[in-house]
Protein 1
Amino acid sequence: MKNPNKETEEKRQHSTTYVPYSCYECRLPASFMNVPMHWHSEFELNYIKAGKGEFICGSQKFMALEGDILIIPPNMLHSAYPYKHEELIYHALVFHPILLGSSGGDRSAVECMRPIVNGSAQIKVHICPDDKDYSLLRATTDQIFACVQADSAQMDLLLKSELMKLFWLLENSGNIIFRKETGAGYNELIRPVLAYMSQNFREDITVEYLASLAHLSKSHFMKCFKETVGVGAMEHLTQLRISAACEALIATQDKISDISYQCGYSNLSNFNRQFLKKVGCSPNAYRKRNP
């Protein structure tokens, strides 16, 4: 797999050598509006606790419901959005491949785990209750999160075991296909565009300029971007701006007009309109709701 653009990588540090994982409870849109398109070098295991939401993982776009399990391999572009402002609650475990023994030289590491890490094996991302071996996968997933919540060196031993069991179950049920996909698809074309947008969303950005970054015609770029990210380029730009505004409303006491300008809006009325459309309330109401 081609090395992803480092600027597109999520900046949060999920793991250390001593504790190679992090766990989060995600509540959308209560905690934050959405999880914009990003990637990281760790695996991510998600379990949907309540509600439903739309996920984009690589070239797949799907609705995830309560009880669904998501296994996202390293370096895969992915994002999450609540469904029509309905609350989506899920647990996310982000863990380093070292927990799966991928750095070892034994045959299970070489033949089973490394192909998943380097992208030469295709893994089924979305596991639903009607899938084969779901009850076993669900029980193992529950055990994995129980180990994480225990937060001890002794339970980390069991965590490693349960993660290995999870991937054994995935392979045994045919949810891992060991074959190389031909071509890089649109992901590698769009990664530098996403990197540019995440760094410069406050600026005046046009579709024409973004298309030039991908070395594509405007029409072809618009098609590629939507197929990769799930929404159009201007819609993604709006999401980045409103997400930044949500963070600023909670973290600062800046005036709403100043936040609007800082997030790329020269017109306060347009900012208020877009914020209401995306978040479901006014900026002022959002700040009061999240003191």
Protein 2
Amino acid sequence: MKRIAIVFVAGVAVVSVLLALAVVLGAPRPPPPMESINTPFRSVDFSDLAQLKHYTARDGARLAFRAYAPATSPAKGSAVLIHGSSASSNSLHPLAKGLAQAGYAVYALDMRGHGESGPKGQITYIGQLEDDVEDFLGAVHPAGTRTLVGLSSGGGFALRFAASSRQKLFDQYMLLAPFIHQDAPTARPEAGGWVTTGVARIITLTLLNRFGITRFNTLPVLAFALTSEAQKFLTPTYSYALATNFRPHNDYRVDIGAAEQPLRVLVGQDDEIFHADQFSAVFEEAGRPVPVTLLPGVGHVDITLQPAAIQAVTETIGSFRDGESP
């Protein structure tokens, strides 16, 4: 019996050391810059970028967003835009302008942990991003039919929100080249070179969270392929809490099945981060077929930058109203 106790204690000590090493040494290494993500924004005209506004979240934090007034009166509805990983509301400027010119009231958010919304790469708890979006709606009250539009990781978060008990806060959801899951058929290894992952640290922190230990959730687990210049104003890394919250839940099929509001997916055929041709199958396999539109000649970030892609997004939002195919 004494020998068993010694072996057990020794085993626990070894496991504890391994867990500690994974937490301490498991940080992701920054990948080399990914030009197809960084370069397109250099040609964007930001001279008419909407000024930052702020609202107060339930924890007292002042979070940032940009508002674009509709070119028509009354507005056709409202669109709330969620940027992709590492980015901010700035990156959605061309899309926001295009939707506003088409007659929509548009709001581009700096999600907490990005842009001017709190410390970069950090949130306080998993689930805080949903609380923030609800607080934004309560503060701003977007008028008319509300569409939540998310790009990439923002699209994954939009799916997460669409599956939640708060899904009816929006009338419809549009996912632009959305991140579904690292093991979904849509995923390329390391997102085509966009991200590196501290796998050992993620596994360890996930285990600790199951036992209610969250004190290490501020540690970085994702690093993005930014240029040295972009690292100055974008978000180079995500903490475990932010990386876990800014995406669908781990069982993404449950999220897809739980999303009851109208849902559409747009993705560029030339997407270099995801396998564009696999999105339809992912939703069908989860029991929720949705219209998926593939845009020819469009890459990952092009879907919010190219005029033809912006027009496709605008037309798809309008098609919800009459139940038309995009």
Protein 3
Amino acid sequence: MSYAVLHIMKASGSCTAIARHIERSSHPDNAHPELRHLNRDDFIKYPDGVVGLGEAIQHRIDHAGHTRKVGKNQVLALNVLLSSDGEALRRLADEGRLNEWAEASVGWAKETFGSANVVGAHLHMDEQTPHLHVTVVPIVTTERRRKASEAKATKRYRTKPKNGPRLSADDIMTRDNLTSFQDTYAKAMERFGLERGVRGSEARHIDQHEYYRDCQRKKKALEIEVAELTTEKKKVSREKKALETSKENIQQETNLLIGKNEIYKSANERLCKDNETLAEENNILVTANDRLIPKVTELVERHDQLEKANAKLADDIARLEMQKSGKCRMQTW
């Protein structure tokens, strides 16, 4: 079961900040600009000549008929936030009943705070969870509650009218009233499948200012993280550049080695071809040598024979010479 969410925040001063947020004159960090066209601000019509929520608040105060001077820090308006969980509101949107829910919520606010006091209503669809801002000027006509300090005071002031209109957020935001608001709003939301929150729950609503302070803290932390990541990115970029330079050098050396390898490969191919040619020539020479060996052997043998014949011839010549020489001596005698 989903809960009907009701939260009331006080707005003081000129209400400029809350008006900027509600009317989207400034863009909150958690809002999505592309969804802004889904927002609605036509639930309450401003009086003639009134432009903007700030003027609408002041117009109600000026025309409420109260006589007391508005204090510098007095609460001028209440920002009534009406919503539920995202799943419940998405279900209503799918059923085509989200506008009906918003109009019923505005109707409850008019009935509870008075139609004249409800000066603005804005449906925000551009945030994570759709919600309704109803702006209420806290004009009351009930008798003013006296503070304990006033009851003890000895000095008396002029008696103020008891039942006249007054600007008093405190008279509206009493503990009993706040409980009653939760009860009656939940009752009005029953037909949309929403129920009252747990009574006495310690769950606490984070108001807009606290939310934005938290966003600013997170933003600062993210900025620090982004700065660190930027520094790391620059370091990585430098390392990447160095690696790219190293890669280029390695590529150049690789290309040089590839070129040398092609040269060596070409030279090796030539040497292989020359070696094949030399091997073929060697085979031819070996074959020719094999054929010449018998002839050489034969020539050697003939040479030996000639040597022997030559030696014998020499012996014969020598013997003949000796014989010739002997004959010559015999003739001389």
Protein 4
Amino acid sequence: MSYKVFIDGKDGTTGLKIFERFEHRGDIEIITIDESKRKDPQEKSRLIDQSDFTFLCLPDEAAIESVRLCNNTHTRIIDASTAHRTAPGWAYGFPELGAEFRRKISGSKRVAVPGCYASGANAICHPLVKSGIMGADYPVVIHAVSGFSGAGKKAIAQYDDPNRNAELDSPRLYALTQSHKHLPEIKLISGLEFEPVFNPYICDFFQGMTVTVGLHARLLAKKVTARDVWEMFRAHYDGAKFVQVADFLGADVLAEPFIAANTLAGTNRMQIFVCGNDQRITVTTRFDNLGKGASGAAVQCMNIMMGIDEGEGL
């Protein structure tokens, strides 16, 4: 069976990556829009209605408008923007978080792909809260580093400029007002009562990401050791195709005692590391901000919605 797919915003970073993942698939027919009509609502509406699946790789307001342009009950929309991640009626596109997430994705006509940082944070916080190890009122602090590819075309051009500002050679902390756009979905999906303190860094490498949550054992809802936390994560992600929990302290996948952020670039995989000691525990996710954090997750959701192997093309 062949499916017609329209990528609205195919020239952006995420859109291009989705397009690349379809290059060798015989079950996908890409519908393209004439460049001269790229912003024509009537033409976009026609192509959305013609498609079986439409991917939205757009700014939030444009994504909301594109959803309004769908005039049928047939087209299934997968939105990679922030616009619908906390919206009622939209499935949240992270199937590994639990069977209920996978069921909703499978049966939904509207799926919101998680944000890159939110993917890493929710992969940690959702199981901790669900298991009862971490209370919903825990004062979560998140530290994260990302390659510059996720910052958009303007930032990519700045990093690629041979005459760039010397500050770009260094990791740069941002989201200083604690109002990052991924915070609402982290709070909602993880089941937290309060938004976390979030400290993201954009760094001088192209692709890849790590997200870390630190835990004080004395503040947890259950008395646990670091190994107990690791065992909970192993059980939660048991059998997951793309999420791997490394051996305790990461000894099985780390050649040295460092967690590099770019190791999984170009893949749809995510690794989880539990480190530290029985007083202070760290949980780190490592993945590709353009893969499991964006385009790879979008394609994985589409595969689940199709009822085929979720790893097709990934």
